[in-house]
């Protein structure tokens, strides 16, 4: 099993916050005291995130103006169980320097910053997915497999993931334009290249007209029968064009707090009460 680093492993638990009943004067004093330029706005009785207030929100506002009247309600928050690699992409493409962190009940549990993201990536020393896949294949099929680093033709790739998310795809397109891309993971059989990891990256590359990508490649013979290969065939996945792009879905562990109110009828807490 891959040991992903989680937000809860890197977040700062002690967070400076403000109440919706605080005033602009109170927030200015907190800025002077802490040096921070913004704070989560939390409900006093249960620490549920209601919004976020920054120095920009207070421009031309009176000192006695209540936080609840001027705070931003459309706020990105991260889940405690979210992978740090996913947080890195969200922060990178949203332009945010920090995200409030909440648990499954939307209680504030900490804050994650771009500095935390950098720290987590510096500490990551090996491509865990690749080596875990290698060990799994060796254990299941009682064989030895090698891992080769080489470019692959993306038009030859057979996908194993039926859908990707449009917002994630946009982020990967942006990363590729900036020259930032992790290697994809591919199993190479005599007449087939099976894409194991990197579906968003590959589709992004195809949209940009990129013909090949750097990859960790594991060569296997046809005598090795893979469950993922059979599942992909059953799902009708033969080329990249068979992957569906969902333009209405977001990352499952990223919430915009404003949306939570709409889900109150389904048992989610109304953060605005």
Automatic annotation (TrEMBL):
BP terms from Gene Ontology: methionine biosynthetic process
Q: Which UniProt keywords apply?
A: Amino-acid biosynthesis, CBS domain, Methionine biosynthesis, Oxidoreductase
- A single Pfam family it belongs to is CBS
GO MF terms, alphabetically ordered: IMP dehydrogenase activity
- Keyword Amino-acid biosynthesis present in the record's keywords: the answer is yes
The enzyme's E.C. designation: 1.1.1.205
Q: Which domain of life is it from?
A: Archaea
Q: Which InterPro entries match?
A: CBS_dom (IPR000644), CBS_dom_sf (IPR046342), Diverse_CBS-Domain (IPR051257), ParB/Sulfiredoxin_sf (IPR036086), ParB_N (IPR003115), UCP004699_CBS/ParB (IPR016427)
Q: Where is the CBS domain?
A: 11-68, 71-130
Listed PANTHER family: CBS DOMAIN-CONTAINING PROTEIN, CBS DOMAIN-CONTAINING PROTEIN CBSX3, MITOCHONDRIAL
**Descriptive protein name:** Putative transcriptional regulator
User: Upper lineage ranks?
Assistant: Archaea, Methanobacteriati, Methanobacteriota, Stenosarchaea group, Methanomicrobia
């Amino acid at each position: 099993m891959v040991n992903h680093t989680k937000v809860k492993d890197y977040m700062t638990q002690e967070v400076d916050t403000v109440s919706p009943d605080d005033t602009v004067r109170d927030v200015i004093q907190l800025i002077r005291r802490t040096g921070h330029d913004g704070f989560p706005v939390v409900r006093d009785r249960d620490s549920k995130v209601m919004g976020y207030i920054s120095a920009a929100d207070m421009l031309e506002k009176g000192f006695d103006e209540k936080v609840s009247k001027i705070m931003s309600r459309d706020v990105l928050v991260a889940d405690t169980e979210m992978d740090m690699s996913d947080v890195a992409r969200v922060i990178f493409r949203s332009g945010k320097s920090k995200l409030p962190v909440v648990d499954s009940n939307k209680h504030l549990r900490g804050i994650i910053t771009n500095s935390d993201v950098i720290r987590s990536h510096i500490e990551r020393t090996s491509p865990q997915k690749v080596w875990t896949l290698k060990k799994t294949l060796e254990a299941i099929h009682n064989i030895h497999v090698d891992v080769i680093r080489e470019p692959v033709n993306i038009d030859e790739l057979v996908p194993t993931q039926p859908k990707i998310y449009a917002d994630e795809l946009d982020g990967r397109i942006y990363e590729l334009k900036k020259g930032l891309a992790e290697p994809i993971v591919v199993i190479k059989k005599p007449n087939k290249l099976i894409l194991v990891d990197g579906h968003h990256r590959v589709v992004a590359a195809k949209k940009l007209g990129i013909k090949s990508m750097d990859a960790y490649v594991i060569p296997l013979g046809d005598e090795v029968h893979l469950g993922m290969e059979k599942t992909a065939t059953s799902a009708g996945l033969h080329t990249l064009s068979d992957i569906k792009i969902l333009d209405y879905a977001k990352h499952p562990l990223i919430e915009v707090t404003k949306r939570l109110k709409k889900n109150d009828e389904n048992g989610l807490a109304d953060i605005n009460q």
